[in-house]
Amino acid sequence: MSTLAPARPAISVRGVVKSYDDLHVLRGVDLDVEQGSIVALLGSNGAGKTTLVRILSTLLRSDEGTAAVAGFDVATQGADVRGAISLTGQFAAVDEILTGRENLVLVARLRHLASPGDIADELLARFSLTEAGSRRAGTYSGGMRRRLDIAMSLVGRPPVIFLDEPTTGLDPQARVEVWDAVRELAAAGTTVLLTTQYLDEAEQLADRIAILHEGRIIADGTLAELKALLPAPTVEYVEKQPSLEDVFFAIVGDRTTTTEDAR
Amino acid sequence: MTTLTAPAPAPGTSRPRFWSDTAALTGRSLQHVTRSVDTIVTTAVTPVAIMLLFVYVLGGAIDTGDVPYLTYMLPGILLITIASGVAYTSYRLFLDLQGGIFERFQSMPIARSGVLWSHVLTSLVANAVSLAVVLAVALVMGFRTGADVGSWLAVVGILALFTLALTWLAVVAGLSAKTVDGASAFSYPLIFLPFVSSAFVPTDTMPTAVAWFAEHQPVTSIVDTIRSLFLEQPVGSDIWVALAWCAVILVGAFAWATALYRRRIR
Questions:
Q1: Which residues of A touch B4 (CB under 8 A)?
Q2: Which residue of A3, A58, A191 is in closest CB contact with B4?
Q3: Is A60 left (phi over 0), alpha (psi -120 to 50) or beta?
């Protein structure tokens, strides 16, 4: 992606600390995310992934440290940060009473865009929701809600997108759909910081993986770099067993083509 | 802001605009009301039932002098309508907080206070409709008033101010609630308050302590003011006491809600 000199990182975090009373959630987080890349923040439940994302999206203030998104300081230039980002939280943030299309139109209006209706229709088409667009979002399946949720985050084309556990609670097919959507985003130049507790998700999607553990980033690099941290592999011959996922897709016979050649 | 690799944000995205943001969010909130019209009906049902009960069952035993009992108690019924109507505001606000939609709005480049104002404006509209329903039932039951336009405007103004004050109280409840039930429970004492006032029975028939409370709580001055306006009688100092009560509740609840909201989005 880098056509010109080293671009300033889209997200830059330095020494961020956050505690809730005696609970030290973040103990000095450092992280850089390059523009147009997908970085997976990997960690177990309670590792502080969501806390970090909430700080970066100006929903929470850090106790110490600095963080900048798209060049704006999250503590002092909150409005500018919010103008440059979009957050897809852990729970699909859609309005269940409104239809899918109305949800998108609302977000477009709140971003003061011209012709919100056209933007909504375009996104519905892109996320295969055109037919469902006139139905209330409350009637959608988990995967459809997530797709609508992500579509809402794309309104206005924010340069930086946070996806907090985007596939938690989704069935395998819906997961694949979300992965495809994320890859498309990055291909279009959007910076994506996603949190996940699924190792395969990080492996599938991310250019770089940062492991958050006990409040610190304990490893940060490409998949190959992280693998190099381990001792050289020994060669063993193991009979190839199909994974349950392989079996599932073989039986259902419905695997989306784009995932077959995933990286 | 624009760097070469990132897609250019669409024009006009970033700056919050209070009025248009609040208008968009109010439109959304009003759609919640129009798609669950039952909330307006439920808001009106209880006051109407109380009105029927008091006028046709208990009212005959209550001595209100020359004043027809329906006219006597209608102001109290209107306040009960508002007290039960605002519970939906805390309910809707709580649901927004529970789902992710609240955080989505907060992470967008919008005027953040618009999120609360949209719920407040929706409450004013929804309560106005419920009040109109109750008033229509009262007219069918024989309520008549010779009040002129000025008096009606005063009645509407006081009811709007009372709704605004209680709605901000509902915002406090919605922001601080831990459960859905908790979010609307705050309204039960408010619904009960008119019963211990001059709304249904003249206070001079009450035991001293109760009468003292009844005469010094906000509902009595508001009820007395609206009743005088309906009866084309001078409102005296009641209207100022009523307005002062509404203003105090409004300012207090607004400050409290704003403080809670700030803490919430920190």
A1: 3-4, 7
A2: A3
A3: beta
Give the pLDDT mean for A103-126.
93
Residues, chain A, total? Answer: 263
How far is B25 from B42, CA to CA, in rounded Å?
A: 24
Mean pLDDT of A110-116: 91
Residue ranges of chain B with per-residue pLDDT less than 70: 1-15, 265-266
Q: Domain A11-251 falls in which CATH fold?
A: Rossmann fold (3.40.50)
Which are the contacts of A29, defined by CB distance < 8 A and separation ≥ 6? A13, A15, A16, A17, A48, A52, A65, A212, A215, A216, A217
Among the partner residues A1, A93, A102, nearest to B99 by beta-carbon distance: A93
Torsion of CA A143, A163, A186, A161, to 10 degrees: 130
Task: Give B6→chain A minimum CA distance, Å.
Answer: 5
B38 touches chain A (CB under 8 A): no
Q: Does an H or E element contain A161, and which?
A: strand A160-164
Q: What pLDDT score does B266 carry?
A: 59
pLDDT reading at A36 higher than 60:
yes
Is residue A193 a contact partner of residue A57, using CB atoms and an 8 Å limit? no
Q: Do B25 and A110 touch (CB under 8 A)?
A: yes
Find the DSSP H helices in A57-171. 78-84, 100-110, 116-126, 142-154
Q: What residue in A sits closest to B36 (Cα-Cα)?
A: A97
A195: DSSP letter: E
**Å between A58 CA and nearest CA of chain B:** 7
Q: A234 in helix, strand or coil?
A: coil
Reported pTM: 0.84
Please report residues of A whose CB lies closer than 8 A to that of B101.
93-95
Predicted pLDDT of residue A255: 55
CB–CB contact A106 B24 (8 Å) = yes
| Angstroms from A240 CA to nearest CA on chain B | 42
Contact B108 A91 (CB under 8 A): no
- pLDDT at site A162: 93
Task: Name the residue facing A111 among B25, B101, B109 (closest C-beta).
Answer: B109
pLDDT at position B190 is 86
Surface-to-core class of residue A184, CB atoms within 10 Å of its CB (0-12 exposed, 13-18 middle, 19+ buried) = middle
Report residue B128 as tokens. 């106005």
- Among partner residues B4, B16, B101, which is closest to A93 by beta-carbon distance? B101
Q: What is the pLDDT of residues B212-240, one digit of tens each?
A: 888 888 899 999 999 999 988 888 888 89
